[in-house]
Amino acid sequence: MPRPRPAGAAAAPALTAVLLGAVLLGAVPLSACQPVGRQAADGAAVAPKAGDEAAAQSTVTTDWGPLGPADRDVIVRVRQAALWEIAVARQAQRRAARPATRRALGAIARGHVRLDLLDRQVAARLNLPLPDRPTPDQQSWMSEITGKSGNDYDRTAVARMRMAQGLLYAELGAVRAGTRNTLVREFAQRAQPLVDDQMGRLEATGFVTGDVLPDPPEVTEPPPPAQPGGRAAPAPAATTVLSGGG
């Protein structure tokens, strides 16, 4: 998923719902929804301040330990995902061609609402501003999905969401493994199973193929492949190896 641009205070839920619904229906041109570097409480654009980029890369002290750039980034990304995926999933409950897609996307919408609530609670405790609108890329995905019909609608919605979910899942795992902030660690630990559940629901629709998955992680020293036509001997139990074979 593309790196979101941080925004300021979130708008009221009703306003956000109206904006997302309008984007999905094509009533709001994409150019009218460009996110800005920061945003005032009333939604007015605020010019970026000098040093904002350096501040974004800094680590700050909190009651739960140091809060670094990756910690803040994953919380923002979870919020950013909710801003377009909830709207798409709710629309798919009505428009998807297949009942299985409608059921899966309906469950994802409900799960994302719970995840967004958790995300906003953690952000409030950390005094972390969250975005209040989809990124330009996300807006283009929403328009792309809305412009489809039949199985093409189902396939496009599932493909876009599965790609985004896979990237988010990987970042949650990396932050869960390495964060020094106990609150962020707890958040990632709770969020990752919810994203995993959503990926499973998307895969169960039958529309997830290899071309919609993110690239696998790079491995510096991968094990050699098996010889063609050959078969590797089963490995002994680790306890047997550790005990010297006795």
Please provide a written account of the structure.
- This protein is mainly α and 246 residues long.
- The strands form two sheets. A two-stranded antiparallel sheet has the order 1-2. Strands 3-4 form a two-stranded antiparallel ribbon.
- It contains eight helices and four strands, in the order αββαββαααααα.
- The longest helix has 29 residues, at 150-178.
- The chain has a domain at 62-222: Ferritin.
- α6 runs antiparallel to α7.
- β1 and β2 form a beta hairpin.
- It is flat and about 60 Å long.
- Helix content is 57%, strand content 4%.
- Residues 214-227 have a biased composition (Pro residues).
- It holds the Pfam family DUF4142.
- Residues 129-148, 210-246 are annotated as: Disordered.
What is the topology?
Elements: H1 13-25, E1 38-39, E2 45-46, H2 52-56, E3 60-62, E4 65-67, H3 69-95, H4 99-125, H5 136-146, H6 150-178, H7 182-203, H8 238-242
Antiparallel strand pairs: 1-2, 3-4
Report the sheet-strand fraction: under 5%
Annotation field: number of helices: 8
Indicate the low-confidence ranges by residue numbers: 1-48
Mean pLDDT: 80
Strand arrangement within the widest β-sheet reads 1-2
Helix/strand/pairing class, anyone? mainly alpha
Structure summary, number of beta strands: 4
Alpha carbon gap, first and last residue: 50 Å
Biased composition (Low complexity): 228-238
Biased composition (Pro residues): 214-227
InterPro entries: DUF4142
Protein name: DUF4142 domain-containing protein
